[in-house]
Amino acid sequence: MTPILAESSDYAPFEVTIPPEAHGLRLDRALADAVPSLSRSRLQGLIRDGAVAFDGATISDPGRRVKPGERFTIVVPPAEPAVPKPESMALAIVYEDEDVIVVDKPAGLVVHPAAGHESGTLVNALIAHCGDSLSGIGGVRRPGIVHRLDKDTSGLLIVAKTDRAHQSLSAQFHAHGADGRLERRYLALVWGGPVRQHGTIDAPLGRSRTSRTKIAVTRSDDGRRAVTHFEVLERFNAADGKPLAALLALTLETGRTHQIRVHMAHAGHPVMADPVYATGFQTSASRLGTEARTALARLDRQALHAAFLTVEHPVTAKRMAFESLLPADIQSLLDGLRHDGSLKPSVPQKKRRI
């Protein structure tokens, strides 16, 4: 479809002429095809708010069927100020352009304001950092959060700066890599270790019935589908030959709350230092050497890091790949395990060390 579109400045009206091939389409669909920078849901809101006119008369029905040659005017108001307040804080910016920003989030930083965390979040910091470069997600000048990391999980996170970018990134994360555009991989140190080098955990997740703050594996009719793929990168066996710890690479096929942490705990190999899902491993910790045991004691969060992110750029369609090295606290624990004379490290064949 090649609609005729004229645009003169940031907030000047869009003038759209309906082409022959759009005959019979809904108004919101036809306008979304004509103006890629505005999502269909955003256009529906603009139509209902009286921001779209035909021959000088306001149109209020997004479902109105269009005809070739009809001319519509869209007046897009400036984005409203974001509700969260901007807060200046240091950010590790991995990549940024006019459409997206990639951040290496440290452990301890909450992504989005919520009860108990109304300020001091990544969103507050991004509003301050991006300023006027945020064109408005759904009409509000705010960053478009398309995925999240737990407060105490570190690593790569991509955020949309425009409505157009938000649409594409949301679709990519909704597909979870099934269409080949997105890949997310995490690194984790876990207790014990899977027997197989590669494997998949397919177990539905839902709220725990014993604690509303925890997630648990549930029956398929009670939970949401959750699939995690793992690969053992390095094993650390005790003197008796039994696995004590392992370094894993994990790929998500779905994106549920606490998915990796719960799935690994369910498999009997919880993430090391996880304060929620790895309780009861004091005996295992006592078997570590001094260096590893000290590093574990200093690690006040789960040993989980979002290390690799590959996405398709929402505008250029260019494939972008990013990598984040293990942060110092997890690296110290990994080094401690590698240097532990009482353990027998082993690396599966054809796999490089991280």
What keywords describe this structure?
single chain; 354 residues; alpha+beta; Structural Genomics Hypothetical 15.5 Kd Protein In mrcA-pckA Intergenic Region, Chain A; Pseudouridine synthase; 3 domains; five-stranded antiparallel sheet; 18 strands; 21% helix; elongated
What's the pLDDT, averaged over the residues?
A: 87
Number of helices: 8
- The sequence of SSEs as H and E is EEHHEEEEEHEEHEEEEEEHHHEEHE
Principal-axes shape call: elongated
Strand content: 25-35%
Would you write up a description of this structure?
The protein has three domains: 4-74, RNA-binding S4 domain (Structural Genomics Hypothetical 15.5 Kd Protein In mrcA-pckA Intergenic Region, Chain A, Roll); 93-175, Pseudouridine synthase, CATH 3.30.2350.10; 183-346, Pseudouridine synthase, CATH 3.30.2350.10. The radius of gyration is 24 Å and the shape is elongated. The chain has eight helices and 18 strands. The strands form three sheets. Strands 6, 7, 8, 9, 10, 11, 14, 15, 16, 17 and 18 form an eleven-stranded mixed sheet that branches. Strands 1-2-5-3-4 form a five-stranded antiparallel sheet. Strands 12-13 form a two-stranded antiparallel sheet. 21% of the residues lie in helices and 26% in strands. The protein is α+β, with helices and mostly antiparallel strands. Helix 1 packs across helix 2 (40-48) and helix 7 runs antiparallel to helix 8. The model is unreliable at 1-10 (pLDDT under 50). Strand 14 and strand 15 form a beta hairpin. It has helices at 27-34, 40-48, 122-130, 163-175, 259-266, 282-286, 290-298, 328-339, and strands at 4-6, 14-17, 52-54, 57-58, 71-74, 93-96, 100-105, 144-145, 154-160, 183-191, 198-202, 205-207, 215-217, 227-237, 243-252, 304-312, 319-323, 344-346.
